[in-house]
């Protein structure tokens, strides 16, 4: 196991260095621009190069080219991100960003906050890739803009929508290993002042036998599957039906109205002697209005609701139901106070509600939060020595925890020869989840919010068709919520120190594309007691992702290698999960205008590995897909 992990981690730095060096001889007229716009980092559109944060954009072309069948698979191995999955497609997937907890990353869908107020987690595994246009990832604290939860960072998912005028259609079918069946289709009809659109998707798999260990009821020890030995040795299937609807209209100059809805309904089978299957619903409904009364002034209003509903069964017998709602409202004004200077002010309102139906532990809860924020963005100086400043301040008033103030200060400077340097410091917080506060027998209503402070340094360089970037950071989290064995419930026991380094690079020249990402992470439990100095669980100390693609006429071939070092699966550092490396390969043939046939092989080396103790991951898998998208005809 160990050599297989060390090899990819040692090769990836060399590959990334080559990706940085090769472009020095590239011709500018042959290179492709890597510059993109992002809104999540500042809540206003800004160039990726101008963002004073570690950001990444995954566009639709990269999604189509990948071998991923789910959002967790697409995010796996990226800088600062660790995914823990309990048994393959559709199974519970938790995300750890920059070493923070799995509920320390804020997830948005089209600007609407999603996630369960009971568990604190967003069901990433239930958001189908077929409905996604692009994804923006911002690493580092963003509570000063978004409030609670954004300690590790923010991930915003944008659903598909047409651009320009006319009719835009698309469709895809796929089949693969373990009985995988996928189908999706969409259409947008657009005119001069707006348009409407719809996308639908279906995904089903027979799954794999997820559980690799068993729970012993005599010793109260064993696997996370919590099943009696000899039972549930079967495949754990998954089904997802989803759709998104959208409409936008510009009734007059300076006005823009938008409405959209997304809903995914699924069924999940897994291993357990209390619950072994569930029906899930993920839904987002939102509307927005934007008014530009004059040049350099914009006012926007957004309303949205997220439903996260899980009905759980043992066979056909009802076990429990976790139904949660998140209502969001946001009013924001953006004012250009001078050339290259902008002031944004806003008000956010959030109401979380939960209704848990359980024969043994039912409860209901509700709380509201009101937040006001202000942000200043400025640029000064000549183009070859331009300084960038970002300052944001926010105050949240929570029904349960009172007031909390967070802030971020960032500075950057653009230097000659494509160099850029920046530094930032920010604070963030996370309110306890409803389960941690109210779940009968396993909760603590006296919990305090978790608070964090982070500092970061960045050094980057870019040129014609290439860029490299290094980010070093440190985060300290106080009042970290963890299970307290002396209380038999969660408590504010721990503080933690997290240090990390991320190295990313991208290169495009002629028909070649290379993307590399490396991460080094050091976590330390600084709480008093037996676990002092231990590593935080489920965080590998090293990770790497490398993608190489080449276009040969109408054929594109690509490979992606992902590697992660070993990690501990418990706070006492006694349960070790080994490191691993996987290789995905794909070939796509554009055999006619708008038509693409693609073959993927995932985990081509058939590596046996786990990301969570006692839960298997899929071995080698094959997929064949056919995609029709007339917009690709001219590419």
TrEMBL record:
Any one of the GO BP annotations: monoatomic ion transport
Q: Where this protein primarily resides, as one coarse class?
A: membrane
Q: Which CDD domains match?
A: ligand_gated_channel (cd01347)
Query: Boundaries of each TonB-dependent receptor plug domain copy?
Result: 49-154
Compartments, record wording: Cell outer membrane
> Is the Transport keyword given for this protein?
yes
Q: Tell me which UniProt keywords the record has, alphabetically.
A: Cell outer membrane, Ion transport, Membrane, Signal, TonB box, Transmembrane, Transmembrane beta strand, Transport
Domain TonB-dependent receptor-like beta-barrel spans what residues?
A: 234-603
UniProt keyword Oxidoreductase present: no
Any matching Pfam family? Plug
Signal peptide start-end? 1-28
Q: Name one GO cellular component term.
A: cell outer membrane
Matching InterPro entries: Beta-barrel_TonB (IPR000531), Beta-barrel_TonB_sf (IPR036942), Plug_dom (IPR012910), Plug_dom_sf (IPR037066), TonB-dep_rcpt-like (IPR039426)
Bilayer topology reads: Multi-pass membrane protein
So what family is this one in?
Answer: Belongs to the TonB-dependent receptor family.
- Its name, as the record gives it, is Vitamin B12 transporter
Q: Which organism is it from?
A: Thermomonas hydrothermalis
Its taxonomic path starts at:
Bacteria, Pseudomonadati, Pseudomonadota, Gammaproteobacteria, Lysobacterales
């Amino acid at each position: 196991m160990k050599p297989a992990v060390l090899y990819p981690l040692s090769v990836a730095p060399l590959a990334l260095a080559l990706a940085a060096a090769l472009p020095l001889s590239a011709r500018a007229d042959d290179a492709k621009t890597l510059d993109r716009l992002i809104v999540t980092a500042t809540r206003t559109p800004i160039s990726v190069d101008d963002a004073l944060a570690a950001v990444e954009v995954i566009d639709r072309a990269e999604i189509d080219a990948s071998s991923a069948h789910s959002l967790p698979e697409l995010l796996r191995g990226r800088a600062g991100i660790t995914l823990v999955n309990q048994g393959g497609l559709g199974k519970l997937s938790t995300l750890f960003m920059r070493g923070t907890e799995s509920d320390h990353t804020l997830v948005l869908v089209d600007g609407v906050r999603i996630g369960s107020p009971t568990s604190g987690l967003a069901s990433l595994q239930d958001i189908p890739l077929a409905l996604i246009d692009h994804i923006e990832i911002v690493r580092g604290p963003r509570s000063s803009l978004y409030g609670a939860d954004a300690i590790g960072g923010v991930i915003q998912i944008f659903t598909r929508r047409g651009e320009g005028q006319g009719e835009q259609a698309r469709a895809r079918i796929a089949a693969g290993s373990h009985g995988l069946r996928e189908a999706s289709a969409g259409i947008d009809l657009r005119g001069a002042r707006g348009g409407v659109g719809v996308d639908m998707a279906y995904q089903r798999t027979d799954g794999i036998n997820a559980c690799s260990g068993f729970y012993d009821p005599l010793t109260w020890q064993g696997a996370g599957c919590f099943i009696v030995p000899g039972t549930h040795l079967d495949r754990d299937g998954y089904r997802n039906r989803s759709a998104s609807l959208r409409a936008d209209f510009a009734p007059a100059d300076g006005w823009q109205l938008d409405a959209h809805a997304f809903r995914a309904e699924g069924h999940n089978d897994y291993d357990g002697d209390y619950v072994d299957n569930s029906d899930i619903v993920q839904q987002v409904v939102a509307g927005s209005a934007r008014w530009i009364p004059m040049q350099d002034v914009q006012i926007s209003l957004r309303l949205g609701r997220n439903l996260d509903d899980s009905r759980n069964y043992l066979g056909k017998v009802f076990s429990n139901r976790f139904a949660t709602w998140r209502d969001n409202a946001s009013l924001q004004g953006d004012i250009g106070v001078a050339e290259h200077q902008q002031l944004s002010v806003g008000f956010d309102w959030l109401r979380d509600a939960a209704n848990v139906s359980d024969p043994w532990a039912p409860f209901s809860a509700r709380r509201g939060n009101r937040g006001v924020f202000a942000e200043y963005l400025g640029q000064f100086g000549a183009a070859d020595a331009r300084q960038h400043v970002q300052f944001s301040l926010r105050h949240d008033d929570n029904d349960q925890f009172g007031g909390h103030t967070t802030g971020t200060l960032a500075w950057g400077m653009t230097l000659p020869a494509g160099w850029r340097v920046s530094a930032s410091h920010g604070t963030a917080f996370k309110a306890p989840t409803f389960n941690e506060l109210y779940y009968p027998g396993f909760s603590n209503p006296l919990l305090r919010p978790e608070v964090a402070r982070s500092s970061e340094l960045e050094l980057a360089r870019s040129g014609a068709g290439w860029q490299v970037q290094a980010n070093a950071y440190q985060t300290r989290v106080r009042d970290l919520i963890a299970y307290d064995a002396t209380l038999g419930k969660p408590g504010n026991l721990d503080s933690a120190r997290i240090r990390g380094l991320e190295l990313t690079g991208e290169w495009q020249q002629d028909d070649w594309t290379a993307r590399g990402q490396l991460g080094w992470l050091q976590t330390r439990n600084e709480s008093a007691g037996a676990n002092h100095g231990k590593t935080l669980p489920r965080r590998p100390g090293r990770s790497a992702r490398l993608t190489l693609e080449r276009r040969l006429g109408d054929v594109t071939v690509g490979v992606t290698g992902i590697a992660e070092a070993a990690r501990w699966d418990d706070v006492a550092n006694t349960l070790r999960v080994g490191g691993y490396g996987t290789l995905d390969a794909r070939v796509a043939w554009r055999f006619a205008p708008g038509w693409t046939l693609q073959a993927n092989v995932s985990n081509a080396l058939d590596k046996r590995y786990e990301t969570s103790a006692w839960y298997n991951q899929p071995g080698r898998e094959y997929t064949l897909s056919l995609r029709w998208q007339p917009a690709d005809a001219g590419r």
